[in-house]
Design brief:
alpha/beta; Four Helix Bundle (Hemerythrin (Met), subunit A); Rossmann fold; 2 domains; seven-stranded mixed beta sheet; four-stranded mixed beta sheet
Length: about 375
């Protein structure tokens, strides 16, 4: 498998052993891109807050952090009742990202048969395994996606490949490498000439995190206002769009950060490839279609206030919408499967339809192109 550049091999979490016991540290994404700071997680409550307040973001990373949160919570009480209660508390933090429930279900299934006295150590081992597998899967996503990007680049040998992203699906959103950014990192490492249009992704401005990552990795990019995407696509200045996913229904409908579906519609109008990169843990066959995926509605304060740095380099929030205005803040939208060209997973690429995704899920060796 091709290696990825060192800049993509970073991780937004690290595990520490202290005199007080095991704990986790996370890179606080609410402070990025202005300040890089690590925040300790030593209790279940710390973990809940980190997920709810979006100190950690991205479906794969949320799943990994939840697994570690389970281990942290069990350090106080590892009984059956505690295991069920802790899992339920963590599962309730973010409703849309299926990796959260997937990781908790996997960990609980491993822990329930064990004696209570063995559960804490086993929970840490399972969380470590989930984190390692996520990084490995993302590296594989990069390798499979590289083939698609190489094909597109070969069609335009006289100029850089023009890609567009939405939200952040890099190493910050995973245990390593990223999902949608993994093919971009792999292509950069392979020497492909490219440029990335990075959508701001308001109201949480997660595109700023993508731009921060790409700057560190030396990938040419331009940050754009979300609403500039349609103009660029219609002007023929984009060759393909690649995004991540928080949940993929059985029929191939994709839940991702709000604004994704608008880019997919514009791409379909121009007959551009629209790729979704996600590990198979993001597939949810219990959701028949996107109609069955819960859409998280977040606080109106995310729209009313904007974060930034003042002239004294202090991070703060500025009110931009006065009280009295009605505000609606859905965190995700649904992109219909018909608008998705291919889904890139660690097991290969697949069309966005139920038979193909079912084959991919059953057989790790299956690759549909």
């Amino acid at each position: 498998m091709p290696s990825l550049p060192q800049a993509a091999q970073q991780s937004p979490l690290r595990r520490l052993s202290t005199q007080a016991g095991e704990q986790l540290e996370i890179l606080d994404q609410t402070l990025l891109p202005w300040r890089k700071a690590w925040r300790p997680l030593s209790t279940l409550a710390d973990t809940e807050h980190a997920i709810l307040d979006m100190q950690v973001r991205g479906a794969p990373l949320i799943g990994v952090i939840a697994a570690y949160g389970l281990a942290l919570g069990l350090q106080k009480d590892a009984s059956d009742n505690a295991l069920n209660a802790i899992s339920a508390r963590l599962a309730a933090t973010r409703p849309t990202a299926v990796n959260l429930g997937w990781a908790l279900t996997r960990a609980c299934e491993r822990l329930r048969p064990l004696p209570v006295g063995e559960r804490v150590a086993a929970a840490w081992r399972e969380a470590d395994a989930i984190a390692r597998e996520d990084a490995d899967n993302n590296q594989a996503i990069g390798a499979h996606g590289l083939k698609l990007l190489q094909y597109l680049a070969d069609r335009h040998p006289d100029r850089p490949l023009q890609l567009m992203t939405h939200c952040n699906a890099g190493w910050l959103a995973t245990a390593g490498y990223g999902t949608a950014l993994a093919p971009i990192y792999a292509a950069r490492h392979a020497g492909l000439s490219m440029h990335v249009w990075v959508s701001e992704t308001r109201p949480r401005n997660q595109g700023l995190l993508t731009a921060w990552e790409l700057l560190e990795a030396g990938v040419p990019h331009t940050l754009i206002a979300d609403n500039a995407a349609g103009l660029l696509i219609l002007q023929g200045r984009v060759d393909a769009i690649i995004v991540g996913a928080d949940r993929i229904a059985a029929n191939g409908d994709v839940a991702n950060k709000v604004g994704t579906s608008l880019k997919a519609l514009a791409a379909a109008h121009q007959c551009l490839p629209f790729y979704v990169a996600a590990p198979t843990s993001t597939l949810d066959f219990s959701a028949v279609s996107g109609d069955d995926i819960p859409i998280e509605t977040r606080s109106d304060h995310e729209l009313r206030f904007v974060a930034g740095v003042d002239c004294n380099t202090r991070i703060g929030r500025l009110c931009q919408i006065a009280e009295g205005h009605s505000v609606y803040n859905p965190a995700f939208d649904i992109t219909p499967a018909a608008l998705v060209t291919l889904i890139i997973t660690e097991r290969g690429v697949s069309p966005a339809n139920e038979p193909a995704l079912a084959r991919l899920s059953r057989n790790p060796a299956t690759t549909d192109t």
